[in-house]
Amino acid sequence: MAVNYTPVSDVLPIAGIRLATQQAGIRYKNREDLLVMEIAEGSSVAGVFTQNLFCAAPVLLCREFLAKQTPRYVVVNSGNANAGTGQQGLDNARKVCAGLAEITGVNVEQVLPFSTGVIGQQLPVQPFLDTFPKALAALDEKSWFAAAKAIMTTDTLPKAISKQLTIDGKLVTLTGIAKGAGMIEPNMATMLSYIATDAKVEQSLLQSMLKQSVGLSFNSITVDGDTSTNDALLLMATGHSGAVVNEANMGELQQALNDVCQFLAQAIIRDAEGATKFVTLQVESAPDMETARAIAFTVARSPLVKTALFASDPNWGRIVAAIGRSPIKRLAVEKLSLWLGDTQLLEGGQPVDSYTEAKGQIEMDKEEITIRIVLNDGDASTAVWTSDLSHDYVTINAEYRS
C-alpha cells in the first residue's frame, strides 16, 4: 500500500498531445498494456535516459532517433523490457516503430519506442501491429490518467499530476505521468515518465530545463540501489498555448517543471515495492555537493538502515555506520549533528543527554521519517528520498516472473 499517496485522476489535457491505451496482450492479460501518444507537428521534445551500460533496445533507438528527427509518435509497452535481447531486440523495436510509421505516414525515426518489464525476453512484434489501428482510432487529449495506468508494472497506483501557471498573460499547463516502484536508483531512477506542456520552448532550452529538474527529482531517489536498463523521461512542448518561453522568462516554467518532476519522483518512493515508510535524507552544511549526495545515498541505500526503518527500530548506530563508510574525502566527526525527525541524536559527534529510546521510538513509528545529517563543514546541502526494506519487497521480486 502506498505511503500517504492518493492518485489524482483529474489531470489536465495538453493541447497538441493525444493518447490512447489498449490491451495488446504483450505479457499481461485483461489489462491495458500498450500506450500510443501523438505529438503535434512543430513541438519540441527533450529526453533523458538510463546510464546503465547494458541499456535496452528501445533506449538505444530513442537516443538514435532523437538525434535525427523531432518525434511525432511515442509507443510504450509494459510487461516486457526488451533489454538484454541483442540484435533481435533492436530489430523488433525497429519493426514496431516501422509499423506505426507506415500507418501514420511519418518517418520511422519519428516514432520513439519505450518498454518496461521483464529483462531478457524477446519482444513480440505482432501484438503491436495488430493493436495500432485501434489505438490510433482512440487517440484523445484526455487520456493521461489511463496512460499512467497502462505503463504500470509492479506499481500499485498510477502516478499523474498537472500544474498551471500564467506566462506573459497566457495560461500554460503541464501534465506528467510516471511509473516505477522497484529497481530504483539515480542516473535515471528506474522508471518511465512523460511530461508535456503547451508552452513553446526551443529544444535546447527544453533539454537544459529537463536536466535541471531531473537532478532535483528522479536522480534524487533510491529504493534498492539498482539502476534499470530502461529508464527514460520525455518532455514535450507543443506551443499550443501561445506562450513563448525563453531564457529571460523561463523561471516560472522551470519551477513548475521542478514541482511536477519532484511530485512524480516522490510518488514512486511512496509506492515503492513493499514500502511502509517514506524517508527523507537531508544532508546539510557539507563541504561540497559531491560529499552531501554521497552521504545521503550511502545511508539511503543501506540494507541495515532500511530494515531498521521497516521494523521501526531506532537503531541509529546503523545510520552513523553508513555515514562513516560513505565514499567521501573527509568527515569532521567532531562537528557532526544527527537528527531523527524532531529528536536530536548527536551533537558535535557525541550523543546528546536529552535523547531517550522512547523519543527515538516515537519518530520511527511514523510513516514519514526525516533523517537530518548536519556536517557543519561547508555550505552544500541536498535531499534524497527513499523507502524502507520490507518482507514484501523480497516477495514481490522473488515472484516477479511467476
Could you please describe the fold and organization of this structure?
- This protein is of the alpha/beta class and 402 residues long.
- Helix content is 31%, strand content 26%.
- The protein has a 7-stranded mixed sheet with strand order 10-18-13-17-14-15-16. It has a 5-stranded mixed sheet with strand order 3-11-8-7-6, with helices on both faces.
- Helix 1 (57-66) crosses helix 2 (86-104), helix 2 (86-104) runs parallel beside helix 3 (126-137) and helix 5 (203-215) crosses helix 6.
Key features?
402 residues; alpha/beta; 18 strands; globular; five-stranded mixed beta sheet; single chain; seven-stranded mixed beta sheet
Q: Approximately what portion of the residues adopt beta-strand conformation?
A: 25-35%
**What would the average pLDDT be, to the nearest integer?**
94
**Total DSSP helices:** 11
- Tell me the distance between the termini: 21 Å
Quick description:
By secondary structure, the chain is α/β, with parallel strands linked by helices. It is built from 11 helices and 18 strands. It has a 7-stranded mixed β-sheet. Strands 3-11-8-7-6 form a 5-stranded mixed β-sheet, with helices on both faces. A 4-stranded mixed β-sheet has the order 1-2-4-5, with helices on both faces.
Map the helices and strands.
Blueprint: E1 17-22, E2 34-39, E3 44-49, H1 57-66, E4 73-80, H2 86-104, E5 111-118, H3 126-137, H4 144-150, E6 159-167, E7 170-179, E8 192-197, E9 200-201, H5 203-215, E10 221-222, E11 232-237, E12 244-245, H6 251-270, E13 278-286, H7 289-301, H8 303-310, H9 317-324, E14 337-340, E15 343-347, E16 350-351, H10 357-364, E17 368-374, E18 380-387, H11 391-398
